[in-house]
From TrEMBL:
It holds the Pfam family PAS_4. Residues 451-490 form a coiled coil. NCBIfam families: sensory_box. Keywords: Coiled coil, Phosphoprotein. The keyword Phosphoprotein applies. This is FGENESH: predicted gene_1.76 protein. Residues 493-682 form the Histidine kinase domain. InterPro entries: 2C_system_His_kinase, HATPase_C_sf, His_kinase_dom, HisK_dim/P_dom, HisK_dim/P_sf, PAC, PAS, PAS-like_dom_sf. Residues 1-25 are annotated as: Disordered.
Length: 682
């Protein structure tokens, strides 16, 4: 199908076929053949005249990309592409298809050929729009990417089969029709692209040369092409706009827009490319003058090789002001940050240090020297000599473990200059496996350590003082318990010693009074019978009465002394929380009369009338009414009340003391005054 290529001349070239010799131009339009030759995607053409229901002839045309895919035996030697062996040049797409794919392709091409137009369209009518169809074919397993999807453009007389790139598969598997912004030239269906007029229908086909030209012409990026002498042969409107060329200005005046400071560098750069490396892809950045405004552009060029010969360059020009502004701002921020960090390091009161991965010092700030207590000329590694001996081993062991595990370190220790310091060291990367060194800090915490020590000493002092106070409190408690025991013993003994003589006095007084009272009654009986001797006249009876009254006074004084002893004992028991109440059933009326009898002589002596009134609430219970209470405590209360009443009534003009008693079945409230209930007669 192809003639053998010419012998290599030592320069890079493509082995393009001679279309006039192989008969391709009789079926495929020349413009389409040239386009497919330069297409990097595999493509081939099937003539409808060679497709029959019985057999499928090989494709009439295959481009270089398809042949490279089918053979995959190209050998690269230096800059020269060696020709393929003759036996591999005639390999076609049909030779690498399996039987099911070959049969499927045959039927698929027949169906497509049936939809092709039968005659050429009229020049004044819209051309027939080629139908777009897709098929997946399984190639030989020895070929890379054997499962490929193909797109077919069915035209009059032939079908173009083109491999679909992956990007089209991702977006749905085909070329979508798009609305075309047409620039009319006055003739229906024609679009002006610079100085060329192309068919609008051809432009709508994105796979056609016209469609590609339309895309490049209206690209928002400045596209251009230059010859080997770097003269602009074609450029789209975006290129002229990016450069700032006005209407009527030549494209070759682009060099006038380069900033004067960059002009010599740019031209020298492209002269070097043309002379020394013409086949190299290049990217260059420089400044432009747009009036009085300075802008930044980047220019990218790629060699244009036609039939193995470098004919110039194609490229694009892009405005990068926004990117430069971002980079410049980022660089300015980074420089400012570095400056601020340097100032902070020099003025910071904390000692900062940088270390290699093995712990070797790289640099430190001035504060580090001041805290460690080293001269700036002294080797940094000697800092450990300033540690107090008690902390040396502990610090070095911790630092060794940190270097081994790459874990952060925080440790407090003391220097010989009296400073207490906190050292913190951490890897210089968040992921310790990617760390290339260490960053550290040494903070003077002497004041804090001393404050903590003072607080600790104060806490110890408080603890010792609290312990001492607790011991003293325990001692006082034991003393109080002992004093209480001694007081109880004293009260018991005193009460016992007081009661014994009082009891003897009361007993002897009662016994003597009984004897004298009996003697008086005997004398009165004799006097009544006139049998009383003259010696025992009225004077003796009078003396007996006075003796009896004296005995009554003795009894009253004894009972008063007994009450005082009981009060003292009761008060002591109350203070010692040992005052007990023992309730029993007793005759309340009898107890009240006995209490009043105790004060009878005293009231008679002081000319006081003592009355006992038994209330109706008590009278209803009968003459032998019994209550449940402590008679001793009740007697003690009533005796105290009567003693106070008699004492103060003796100084009053009204000399009457009345003891009224009432009962209530309802217990009074704890905070309520105890008021006796009124009787029925009140």
């Amino acid at each position: 199908m192809r003639d053998p290529p010419a012998e290599s001349t030592g320069t890079a070239h493509l082995d393009k076929p001679d279309r006039a010799a192989d008969g391709t131009r009789g079926v495929v339009p020349p413009s389409l053949a040239d386009y497919l030759d330069d297409l990097p995607l595999p493509a081939c053409v099937f003539a409808h005249s060679t497709i029959s229901r019985d057999a499928l002839a090989p494709p009439t045309y295959q481009n270089l990309a398809l042949e490279a895919l089918l053979t995959q035996n190209m050998v690269l030697s230096g800059k020269e592409i060696l020709p393929l062996p003759a036996n591999n040049r005639d390999r076609t797409l049909l030779d690498v298809l399996d039987e099911p794919s070959l049969a499927h392709l045959h039927v698929w091409l027949l169906d497509g050929a049936a939809t092709a137009p039968s005659s050429s369209p009229s020049p004044r009518k819209r051309p027939h729009q080629p139908s777009q169809r897709h098929i997946a074919l399984q190639l030989d397993e020895n070929i890379s990417f054997p499962k490929l999807r193909w797109r077919a453009s069915v035209r009059e007389g032939y079908t173009v089969l083109t491999h679909m790139p992956a990007v089209e598969l991702v977006h749905g598997g085909g070329v979508k029709s798009a609305a075309v912004q047409e620039e009319r030239t006055g003739q229906a269906g024609e679009i002006q692209l610079g100085e060329l007029e192309v068919s609008a229908d051809r432009v709508r086909d994105a796979t056609s040369l016209e469609g590609l030209a339309f895309t490049l012409w209206h690209s928002p990026i400045g596209m251009f092409r230059v010859n080997k002498d770097l003269q602009v042969t074609q450029a789209n409107p975006a290129w002229r706009k990016t450069i700032g060329l006005g209407p009527g200005e030549s494209n070759d005046s682009w060099g006038n827009r380069i900033h004067p400071d960059d002009t010599e560098r740019v031209f020298a750069h492209y002269a070097d490319i043309a002379a020394n490396s013409p086949l190299r892809r290049d990217e260059c950045e420089w400044r432009w003058l747009m009036g009085d405004k300075e802008q930044n552009r980047v220019c990218v060029i790629e060699p244009v090789i036609i039939e193995g010969v470098m004919e110039g360059y194609s490229g694009y020009l892009e405005n990068i002001d926004e990117q430069k502004a971002i980079v410049s701002a980022s660089q300015a921020r980074e420089a400012q940050l570095q400056t601020e960090l340097a100032i902070l390091s020099d003025t910071c009161a904390v000692g900062l240090s940088r270390h290699a991965l093995d712990g070797t010092f790289l640099n430190v700030n001035p504060a580090w020297h001041a805290i460690v207590g080293m001269d700036q000329e002294a080797p940094l590694e000697n800092w450990v000599e300033n540690l107090v001996p008690e902390d040396f081993n502990r610090v070095m062991q911790a630092w060794g473990r940190t270097l081994e595990t790459r874990d952060p370190l925080s440790i407090q220790f003391r220097f010989k200059n009296g400073r207490v310091c906190l050292m913190q060291i951490t890897p210089n990367h968040r992921e310790k496996d990617k760390a290339t060194g260490w960053i550290g800090s040494v903070t003077d915490v002497t004041a804090q350590a001393r404050a903590e020590e003072a607080v600790l000493n104060m806490s110890k002092e408080r603890e010792a003082r609290a312990k001492k106070e607790a011991e003293e409190a325990e001692q006082r408690r034991r003393i109080a318990v002992e004093e209480k025991r001694q007081q109880e013993l004293l009260i018991d003994v005193t009460s016992h010693e007081i009661r014994n003589p009082i009891s003897a006095i009361l007993q002897n007084s009662d016994f003597t009074r009984s004897s004298l009272q009996q003697l008086r009654e005997t004398l009165l009986s004799l006097q009544a019978r006139n049998s009383l001797p003259s010696e025992l006249s009225n004077g003796v009876l009078h003396d007996l009465e006075e003796d009896i009254e004296a005995l009554d006074a003795i009894s009253e004084c004894g009972m008063a002394q007994e009450r005082i002893a009981n009060d003292i004992l009761g008060l002591a028991q109350i203070q010692l929380s040992k005052y007990n109440i023992a309730p029993i059933e007793f005759d309340l009326t009898t107890s009240l009369r006995n209490i009043c009898r105790m004060f009878k002589n005293e009231c008679r002596t002081k000319d006081i009338e003592l009355n006992l009134i038994i209330g109706s609430s008590l009278a209803r219970l009968g003459p032998k009414a019994r209550v449940f209470a402590d008679p001793a405590r009740l007697t003690q209360i009533i005796v105290n009340l009567l003693s106070n009443a008699i004492r103060f009534t003796a100084k009053s003009s009204s000399r009457i003391v009345t003891l009224s008693v009432e009962l209530s079945s309802t217990r009074p409230a704890d905070d309520a005054p105890i008021v006796p209930p009124k009787g029925e007669d009140d």
